[in-house]
Amino acid sequence: MKSKVGVLVMSYGTPESLEGIEEYYTDIRRGNPPTPEQLQDLVSRYEAIVGGVFPLRENTNQQVRELQTMLNASTDHSDVEYVCYQGLKHVAPFIEDGVEEMAKDGIKHAVGIVLAPHYSVMSIGSYIKRAQAKASDLGIEMTFVKNYHLHPQFIEALSRRVSAKLDLFEQAGAKRDEVRVLFSAHSLPKRIIEMGDPYPEQLLETSNAVAERTGVKSWQFSWQSAGRTAEPWLGPDILDTLDELSKDNVKYILVAPVGFVSDHLEVLYDLDIEAQAISKNLDIRLMRIDSLNSDPLYIETLRDEVVASFKQGK
Question: Under which pathway is this protein filed (predicted)?
Fold first, then answer.
C-alpha cells in the first residue's frame, strides 16, 4: 500500500470569468468593495488581455496536473503517492479549502509550495501562515518550500528564454550587447527593507545567475505592478526605467519578469500592453521572454523541492 502525501500548490489566484472580477477584487481589498471606477479599470484590463475568453486559471490547473504526474512518475519514492490540491489566496478554492480537501481525503502528511520562487514574509510567508494554521486545526503535519529561486532547472529555463529572445534581436539587426536586459518582479511595500526581508536579494540572485548563464553584461533590475496604496512601494518602476533608458539612448530592451512563473495580468497587461505602448512612444524596441507556465524544467523544479521538503519532514 502506498502512503498518500498531499501537496498544496498555492498561488495568488485569478477569477474564472469576467463576472467574478468584483468578488476577487473585493477579497484583495480585504472585504472592501472597489469603487465603480476601480472595478471598471480592472475589468478593462482583463478584457484587453482575454478578449472574451478566460484562459488564465487553466494555466495554473495545468501546472498542478503536470506536477502531480511528474511526482508520481519517479521511481525514487515508489512507496508514496502524491496528490496535489490547489489553494488560492484571493479566490476559491482558497488556501483553507485546499487543506480541508486533504483532510477529507485522509491525508496526514503534506507539503506546501507556492507558484512563486522568491520568499517574502508578505507573499509566501502569508500563504504558509494560513496553510499552517488550517493544517494544525485538522491534524495534518505539513512542511513548506519557502523558495527555489536558484534551483538549477529554474535558472536553466529562464536562461533559455533570455537567449532565445536575444537571438531574435540579433536576427532583427541589433547587436547582442546593445540589448539592455531588464529583470523584473512584482513590487512590494518598501517597509520590507526595514524588516530585513530577503525578497529583493533573492531576486537579484536569480537575475545575476541568469545573466552569468547567458553571458549578459548589460542588465539591471526594475520593479513593476505596484499596488495603489498610500505607502511607498519598491522602485524604480519599470515604466519609469523605460523613460530613463530612452534618455540614455537605449534602443533595445528585453524584459525578463523572473518574479512571475505564469502568463497573467501583470505580464499580459502590465508588460505586453502598458510597457509595450510606452516603449513604442519612446522609439524603443521591447520584447519579453516567454513565461515558464508548464515548462518541464519548471515542473521539475517544483517536483524536486516538494520531494526534498517531504523527505526532510519525515
Answer: Porphyrin-containing compound metabolism; protoheme biosynthesis
